[in-house]
Specification:
The chain contains 13 helices and no strands. It is an all-alpha fold. The radius of gyration is 28 Å and the shape is globular.
Length: 343
């Protein structure tokens, strides 16, 4: 079990470094569009910094294979999401991103929820699942992929509207998180087929299952969708949302699919169910849009407040009159006599 915990911590480090490097590289690249996937891939592979981030993510994926062979799904996902703390530190120091107060509180609640999930794991009582029926895996994966792509397309349509409120990436994170959740199920299934036999036997076992093909689709679609979203939105928000959705989907769906049971004791069962419900409720309550810039907010306040006595109904300032009721810039009707003026 402790080998799995160590591999999960290494995967956390590699994933956090990889996302930060990719985000840093995306800031200097031309604008990406998910509707032009070939151009997205060509643009990305020309950036050495982005390639370094992609290699870090690939190494994290290799560590994830070790995790799924030694830890139950719920425990693995809880440890993976705990890496959000490292990601937030790196995004703040390297990228200069500053989450809002409400976002910090929400992410803190998510970490508490997933620590509850980790605390529900009891060594010796957990069953690490292996094989799963292919039909069941595909029956879960295909609709989930369709929902994830549909959410992404809807967010893209809204992003092209004029005079829209800027999105903060919640929709992007949910859609990509669903794709990566399916990818996690495929990784779990592939890890169960890494038998002790020779390389040829392992290759035949993998190629004869749907897992490599699901991984190819989620890798390609996830690459285009995630990099386009990461270029437009803050990594300190979109990656935690994506990671939370992936963890919840994998733990909730993967546990019964791969034959892993929930705890029998009341306390661990409560911690696991309550932690999952808390993380999901926090995710649903997070704001969908960034607050407007200060200048725009000031103009919006000016449009909504009523005009004062010194303004006309359109908000334009009147020139003050020298006497109430007189037209602007007109003096008094009977000026006071000065010295030497005849009465």
């Amino acid at each position: 079990m402790w080998w799995g915990v160590g591999a999960a911590l290494v995967a956390n480090l590699l994933y956090s470094v990889g996302f930060v490097l990719e985000k840093r590289a995306l800031g200097g690249l031309p604008a990406l569009s998910a509707g032009r996937p070939v151009r997205v891939v060509v643009t990305l592979v020309t950036s050495p910094l982005w390639l370094a981030g992609a290699l870090a993510l690939a190494a994290g994926f290799a560590a994830q294979l070790v995790v799924y062979r030694t830890l139950p799904i719920a425990a693995a996902q809880g440890i993976f999401v705990s890496g959000l703390v490292l990601l937030l530190l790196l995004s703040s120091t390297v990228l200069g991103e500053r989450p809002t107060g409400r976002e910090r509180h929400a992410l803190g609640a998510v970490l508490v929820a997933l620590l509850m999930v980790v605390a529900s794991v009891r060594e010796g009582d957990e069953v690490v699942g292996g094989e799963a029926p292919w039909g069941l895996v595909l029956a879960v994966s295909v609709p989930t992929l369709a929902v994830g792509v549909g959410i992404y397309a809807q967010v893209e349509r809204r992003a092209r509207r004029r005079h829209r409120v800027p999105t903060n990436g919640i929709g992007y994170g949910v859609s990509v998180g669903l794709l990566y959740g399916v990818s996690s199920l495929a990784v779990k299934g592939a890890a169960g087929r890494l038998t002790v036999g020779g390389a040829g036997e392992v290759a035949r076992a993998l190629l004869g299952s749907p897992y490599p093909y699901v991984l190819l689709f989620t890798a390609g679609a996830g690459l285009v969708m995630s990099q386009t979203a990461l270029q437009r939105c803050r990594a300190s928000l979109i990656v935690p949302v994506c990671t939370t959705v992936t963890a919840l989907f994998t733990a909730v769906v993967g546990t019964p699919v791969f034959g892993e049971r929930l705890p029998d004791d009341p306390l661990p069962l409560f911690l696991r169910v309550a932690g999952t419900a808390l993380a999901l409720s926090v995710l649903l309550a997070m704001p969908r849009h960034d607050p407007p810039p200060p200048a725009r907010a000031a103009r919006r306040r000016d449009r909504t407040r009523p005009p004062s006595n010194s303004e006309d109904p359109h908000g334009h300032r009147r020139d003050p009159a020298a006497h109430p009721g007189l037209p602007p810039r007109q003096g008094a009707a009977h000026p006071a006599p000065g010295p030497g003026r005849a009465l």
